[in-house]
Write a structure and sequence with these properties.
This protein is an alpha/beta fold. The protein contains 9 helices and 9 strands. Pfam families: Acyltransferase (PF01553).
């Protein structure tokens, strides 16, 4: 299911949560005309069933965005199974230990340099910031090397300048690592527990990253102020935002939050597309910890990815931030080959109440009935 290509000025934000009815109806040529004119009262007897069917369609189109589709099995025959077993031995007993060694060496180099720079160069903020940017890019390069990452970057490398923000589609937390090895972005990041949270509160804060907690309403105002302050600074690292707000499976794109498009600055789209030939880079945080996700990548043959830095966009006269966000989403989806869906990604973490879902399903069913009556 795909959303509308553009929004009318009169369309409200809530309309983005409504699916395109045309996607669920057959074309006019495939509908056989009834002997008499079809009227709404002729369908009232089946409206509860239609409501349930519409609800099932809506739920399926939403959950499809956050499912990892495993590849078709290819190794269950007498010829390929021995070869697959040999590949498992190579990946787990040769490649994986070598990658762990690479990542360990990277952390030793990084920490033995980052800690002295952070402590000893406090009186030289510009030099310290430059070295910290370089070191963060370096450790991210070691991470990519530990997956045997094959990443192709297309377009000009981002530069430090005021009043610009970069936005990208979001598949996994490794999106940040893939982009960070080329440019030390400051990102808006959800707070995480464990060792990831420790990195966030120490190393990543040194490059201007901003934490938020989606469960804390007061965080929105604080983060909005930090965003405005950051984009005004001429020496701040480029700001990177994942406006979907959650990881999507690299086949679909959910609604973009409008916060990045209300800053009054140019928006630079970044399209990220992973090739699933060796491993699926989608991180399903509800079923897998980030540590296990990294282990999955490190025991695969390689992570193959393309990154496109696209032309900057500005708010057009008379265009609302919501329309601006949808226009940028169109650009990213077209470049990365993603399907647009009209769902709010936050519903992945906080599902609506049964009454809200029932109201939405009823609204959808009524729209289908009205469309059928018009036919």
């Amino acid at each position: 299911m795909s959303g509308a290509a553009s929004l009318n000025t009169s369309r409200s934000e809530l309309d983005l949560d409504r699916p395109n009815i045309e996607d669920y109806l057959p074309s006019g040529s495939s509908i056989q005309e009834p002997t008499g004119k079809l009227r709404l009262r002729d369908l009232l007897d089946i409206s509860p069933t239609l409501t349930e069917a519409a609800g099932a369609i809506v739920d399926d189109s939403f959950t499809r965005c956050f499912k990892s589709n495993p590849p078709e099995p290819w190794n269950w025959n007498i010829y390929l199974f021995p070869l697959w077993c040999f590949g498992v031995v190579v990946r787990y007993l040769i490649l994986f230990p070598a990658r762990v060694l690479i990542l360990t060496i990277g952390w030793i180099i990084f920490l033995s340099t980052f800690i002295p720079v952070n402590l000893l160069l406090k009186g030289h903020p510009k030099l310290r910031a430059k070295l910290e940017r370089f070191l963060v890019e370096l450790i991210c390069s070691f991470f990519v090397a530990s997956w045997t990452g094959v990443v192709k970057y297309h377009g000009p490398r981002p530069s430090i300048r005021p009043k610009q923000v970069f936005v990208a589609n979001h598949t996994s937390m490794i999106d940040f690592i893939v982009l960070e090895q080329m440019t030390a972005f400051a990102v808006i990041m959800q707070k995480h527990p464990g060792w990831v949270g420790l990195l966030q509160s120490t190393i990543l804060e040194s490059i201007g990253c901003i934490e938020f907690n989606r469960t804390e309403l007061k965080d929105r105002e604080i983060v909005a102020k930090k965003l405005n302050d950051h984009v005004q600074g001429a020496d701040n690292n480029p700001l990177l935002i994942f406006p979907e707000g959650t990881c999507v499976n690299n086949h679909y794109s959910v609604m973009f939050k409008k916060g990045a498009f209300e800053l009054g600055c140019s928006v630079c789209p970044i399209a990220v597309k992973y090739n699933k030939i060796f491993v699926d880079a989608f991180w399903n945080s509800r079923k897998q910890s980030f540590t296990m996700h990294l282990l999955q990548l490190m025991t695969s043959w390689a992570v193959v990815c393309d990154v496109w830095y696209l032309e900057p966009q500005v708010l057009k006269p008379g265009e609302t931030p919501i329309e601006f966000a949808e226009r940028v989403r169109d650009i990213i989806c077209a470049r990365a080959g993603l399907k647009k869906v009209p769902w709010d990604g936050y519903l992945k973490h906080s599902r609506p109440s049964p009454k809200y879902r029932e109201r939405k399903q009823q609204s959808f069913a009524d729209s289908v009935l009205q469309r059928l009556e018009d036919k």
